[in-house]
Protein backbone atom coordinates (compact mmCIF):
# COMPACT_ATOMS: atom_id res chain seq x y z
CA UNK A 1 0.00 0.00 0.00
CA UNK A 2 1.29 3.51 -0.78
CA UNK A 3 1.91 5.93 2.07
CA UNK A 4 -1.14 8.10 2.89
CA UNK A 5 0.45 11.15 1.22
CA UNK A 6 1.84 9.18 -1.75
CA UNK A 7 -0.44 8.94 -4.81
CA UNK A 8 -2.32 5.64 -4.84
CA UNK A 9 -1.50 5.49 -8.54
CA UNK A 10 -0.67 8.00 -11.29
CA UNK A 11 -4.11 7.38 -12.80
CA UNK A 12 -5.90 8.07 -9.51
CA UNK A 13 -4.05 11.39 -9.21
CA UNK A 14 -4.93 12.42 -12.78
CA UNK A 15 -8.60 11.44 -12.28
CA UNK A 16 -8.78 13.52 -9.10
CA UNK A 17 -7.15 16.46 -10.89
CA UNK A 18 -9.72 16.31 -13.69
CA UNK A 19 -12.60 16.11 -11.22
CA UNK A 20 -11.15 19.14 -9.44
CA UNK A 21 -11.96 21.08 -12.63
CA UNK A 22 -15.62 20.04 -12.68
CA UNK A 23 -17.87 17.01 -12.09
CA UNK A 24 -17.80 14.56 -15.00
CA UNK A 25 -18.58 10.98 -16.01
CA UNK A 26 -16.04 8.28 -16.81
CA UNK A 27 -16.36 8.64 -20.59
CA UNK A 28 -15.52 12.35 -20.39
CA UNK A 29 -12.60 11.65 -18.06
CA UNK A 30 -11.19 9.14 -20.55
CA UNK A 31 -11.71 11.45 -23.52
CA UNK A 32 -10.01 14.37 -21.76
CA UNK A 33 -7.04 12.16 -20.86
CA UNK A 34 -6.73 11.21 -24.53
CA UNK A 35 -7.37 14.68 -25.97
CA UNK A 36 -4.83 16.25 -23.61
CA UNK A 37 -2.43 13.39 -24.31
CA UNK A 38 -2.23 12.39 -20.68
CA UNK A 39 -2.42 8.80 -21.93
CA UNK A 40 1.35 9.23 -22.41
CA UNK A 41 1.71 9.35 -18.62
CA UNK A 42 -1.18 7.15 -17.41
CA UNK A 43 -2.40 3.88 -18.88
CA UNK A 44 -6.04 3.99 -19.96
CA UNK A 45 -5.84 1.35 -22.69
CA UNK A 46 -7.94 -1.03 -20.60
CA UNK A 47 -11.51 0.21 -20.75
CA UNK A 48 -12.19 -0.55 -17.09
CA UNK A 49 -9.03 1.04 -15.65
CA UNK A 50 -10.74 4.38 -14.92
CA UNK A 51 -13.77 2.60 -13.43
CA UNK A 52 -11.45 0.72 -11.08
CA UNK A 53 -9.69 3.94 -10.10
CA UNK A 54 -13.06 5.63 -9.47
CA UNK A 55 -14.24 2.71 -7.34
CA UNK A 56 -11.17 3.03 -5.09
CA UNK A 57 -11.60 6.80 -4.85
CA UNK A 58 -15.29 6.32 -3.95
CA UNK A 59 -14.39 3.79 -1.30
CA UNK A 60 -11.86 6.17 0.21
CA UNK A 61 -14.33 9.07 0.20
CA UNK A 62 -12.23 11.13 -2.21
CA UNK A 63 -15.00 11.35 -4.84
CA UNK A 64 -18.77 11.08 -4.64
CA UNK A 65 -21.66 10.53 -7.01
CA UNK A 66 -22.79 13.97 -8.22
CA UNK A 67 -25.63 13.08 -10.59
CA UNK A 68 -26.88 10.49 -13.05
CA UNK A 69 -27.36 11.48 -16.68
CA UNK A 70 -29.84 9.65 -18.90
CA UNK A 71 -29.08 10.72 -22.50
CA UNK A 72 -31.69 9.67 -25.05
CA UNK A 73 -30.90 6.30 -26.56
CA UNK A 74 -27.75 5.84 -24.46
CA UNK A 75 -26.98 4.12 -21.17
CA UNK A 76 -27.24 6.07 -17.93
CA UNK A 77 -24.01 7.83 -17.01
CA UNK A 78 -22.89 8.46 -13.46
CA UNK A 79 -21.31 11.87 -12.92
CA UNK A 80 -18.66 12.04 -10.20
CA UNK A 81 -17.40 15.02 -8.19
CA UNK A 82 -14.35 15.45 -6.01
CA UNK A 83 -14.99 15.79 -2.27
CA UNK A 84 -13.30 18.14 0.20
CA UNK A 85 -11.23 15.16 1.37
CA UNK A 86 -10.37 14.50 -2.27
CA UNK A 87 -9.13 18.06 -2.79
CA UNK A 88 -6.99 17.85 0.34
CA UNK A 89 -5.62 14.47 -0.69
CA UNK A 90 -4.88 15.65 -4.23
CA UNK A 91 -2.87 18.57 -2.84
CA UNK A 92 -0.93 16.21 -0.57
CA UNK A 93 -0.32 13.71 -3.39
CA UNK A 94 0.95 16.42 -5.72
CA UNK A 95 3.28 17.86 -3.09
CA UNK A 96 4.76 14.42 -2.34
CA UNK A 97 5.06 13.39 -5.99
CA UNK A 98 6.83 16.66 -6.83
CA UNK A 99 9.19 16.72 -3.87
CA UNK A 100 10.02 13.06 -3.15
CA UNK A 101 11.18 10.52 -5.76
CA UNK A 102 9.06 7.37 -5.64
CA UNK A 103 10.65 3.96 -5.26
CA UNK A 104 9.98 2.54 -8.70
CA UNK A 105 10.97 -0.67 -10.44
CA UNK A 106 11.42 0.13 -14.15
CA UNK A 107 11.79 -2.73 -16.61
CA UNK A 108 14.98 -1.35 -18.19
CA UNK A 109 16.92 -1.26 -14.92
CA UNK A 110 15.70 -4.78 -14.16
CA UNK A 111 17.08 -6.16 -17.43
CA UNK A 112 20.36 -4.29 -16.91
CA UNK A 113 20.66 -6.07 -13.56
CA UNK A 114 20.72 -9.48 -15.30
CA UNK A 115 22.21 -8.55 -18.68
CA UNK A 116 25.44 -10.36 -17.84
CA UNK A 117 23.65 -13.64 -18.57
CA UNK A 118 23.65 -12.88 -22.29
CA UNK A 119 26.42 -12.15 -24.79
CA UNK A 120 27.92 -8.68 -25.35
CA UNK A 121 27.05 -8.79 -29.06
CA UNK A 122 23.38 -9.41 -28.26
CA UNK A 123 23.36 -6.51 -25.80
CA UNK A 124 25.10 -4.25 -28.33
CA UNK A 125 22.56 -4.98 -31.07
CA UNK A 126 19.60 -4.55 -28.72
CA UNK A 127 20.93 -1.23 -27.40
CA UNK A 128 21.45 0.00 -30.95
CA UNK A 129 17.74 -0.61 -31.54
CA UNK A 130 16.92 1.13 -28.27
CA UNK A 131 18.98 4.14 -29.33
CA UNK A 132 16.98 4.38 -32.56
CA UNK A 133 13.71 4.23 -30.60
CA UNK A 134 14.95 6.90 -28.18
CA UNK A 135 15.98 9.13 -31.10
CA UNK A 136 12.45 8.82 -32.51
CA UNK A 137 10.88 9.64 -29.13
CA UNK A 138 13.14 12.65 -28.65
CA UNK A 139 12.51 13.96 -32.17
CA UNK A 140 8.73 13.60 -31.80
CA UNK A 141 8.68 15.20 -28.35
CA UNK A 142 10.78 18.18 -29.44
CA UNK A 143 8.62 18.63 -32.54
CA UNK A 144 5.44 18.57 -30.47
CA UNK A 145 6.88 21.10 -28.01
CA UNK A 146 7.85 23.48 -30.82
CA UNK A 147 4.35 23.20 -32.25
CA UNK A 148 2.73 23.78 -28.85
CA UNK A 149 4.90 26.80 -28.12
CA UNK A 150 4.11 28.19 -31.56
CA UNK A 151 0.42 27.87 -30.73
CA UNK A 152 0.98 29.90 -27.55
CA UNK A 153 0.53 27.06 -25.06
CA UNK A 154 1.69 28.02 -21.57
CA UNK A 155 5.00 26.47 -20.55
CA UNK A 156 3.49 24.95 -17.40
CA UNK A 157 1.37 22.72 -19.64
CA UNK A 158 4.53 21.47 -21.35
CA UNK A 159 6.60 20.58 -18.29
CA UNK A 160 5.88 16.86 -18.64
CA UNK A 161 7.17 16.99 -22.24
CA UNK A 162 10.24 18.98 -21.16
CA UNK A 163 10.96 16.29 -18.58
CA UNK A 164 10.46 13.50 -21.11
CA UNK A 165 12.85 15.22 -23.54
CA UNK A 166 15.49 15.73 -20.84
CA UNK A 167 15.29 12.16 -19.55
CA UNK A 168 15.26 10.70 -23.07
CA UNK A 169 18.23 12.84 -24.10
CA UNK A 170 20.20 11.68 -21.05
CA UNK A 171 19.34 8.01 -21.58
CA UNK A 172 20.18 8.25 -25.28
CA UNK A 173 23.62 9.64 -24.46
CA UNK A 174 24.24 6.84 -21.98
CA UNK A 175 23.04 4.10 -24.37
CA UNK A 176 25.25 5.45 -27.16
CA UNK A 177 28.27 5.46 -24.82
CA UNK A 178 27.64 1.85 -23.76
CA UNK A 179 27.24 0.78 -27.39
CA UNK A 180 30.54 2.50 -28.22
CA UNK A 181 32.27 0.62 -25.38
CA UNK A 182 30.79 -2.68 -26.57
CA UNK A 183 31.92 -1.97 -30.12
CA UNK A 184 35.44 -1.09 -28.94
CA UNK A 185 35.65 -4.15 -26.71
CA UNK A 186 36.31 -2.10 -23.58
CA UNK A 187 33.09 -3.53 -22.13
CA UNK A 188 33.21 -7.30 -22.38
CA UNK A 189 32.29 -10.34 -20.31
CA UNK A 190 31.25 -13.96 -20.34
CA UNK A 191 28.47 -15.36 -18.19
CA UNK A 192 30.79 -18.10 -16.99
CA UNK A 193 33.34 -15.59 -15.67
CA UNK A 194 30.65 -13.63 -13.88
CA UNK A 195 29.16 -16.73 -12.26
CA UNK A 196 32.61 -17.86 -11.08
CA UNK A 197 33.02 -14.54 -9.31
CA UNK A 198 29.80 -14.88 -7.28
CA UNK A 199 30.40 -15.50 -3.56
CA UNK A 200 28.59 -18.44 -1.94
CA UNK A 201 25.15 -17.66 -0.54
CA UNK A 202 23.90 -18.93 2.81
CA UNK A 203 20.38 -20.13 2.01
CA UNK A 204 19.60 -20.96 5.63
CA UNK A 205 19.49 -24.70 5.04
In which range does the helix fraction lie?
Answer: 55-70%
Order of helices and strands: HEHHEEHHHHH
Catalogue the unreliable spans: none
| Total beta-strand segments | 3
- The overall pLDDT average reads 91
- Characterize the main sheet: 3 strands, antiparallel
Radius of gyration: 23 Å
**How large is the share of residues in beta strands?**
5-15%
Tally of individual helices = 8
Strand order of the largest sheet: 1-3-2
Shape: elongated
Separation of the first and last Cα atoms: 32 Å
Structural class: mainly alpha
Description:
- With 205 residues, the chain is mainly alpha-helical.
- The model has no long low-confidence stretch (mean pLDDT 91).
- The protein contains eight helices and three strands.
- The protein has helices at 10-21, 26-35, 49-59, 84-99, 107-113, 120-150, 159-184, 191-196; strands at residues 24-25, 63-69, 77-82.
- The protein has a three-stranded antiparallel β-sheet with strand order 1-3-2.
- Helices cover 58% and strands 7% of the residues.
- The longest helix is centred in the middle third of the chain and has 31 residues, at 120-150.
- The two termini are 32 Å apart.
Tags for this model:
3 strands; mainly alpha; 3-stranded antiparallel sheet
Topology record:
Elements: H1 10-21, E1 24-25, H2 26-35, H3 49-59, E2 63-69, E3 77-82, H4 84-99, H5 107-113, H6 120-150, H7 159-184, H8 191-196
Antiparallel strand pairs: 1-3, 2-3
Helix pairs in contact: 1-3, 1-4, 6-7
Structure in a nutshell:
The protein is mainly α.
Amino acid sequence: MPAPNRPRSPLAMVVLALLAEEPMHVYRIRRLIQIRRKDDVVNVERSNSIYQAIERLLRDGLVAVHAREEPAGAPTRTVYAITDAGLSTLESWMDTALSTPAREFPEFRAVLAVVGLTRPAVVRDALRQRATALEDTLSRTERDMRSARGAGLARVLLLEDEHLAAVTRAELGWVRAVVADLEAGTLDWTAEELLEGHPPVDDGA
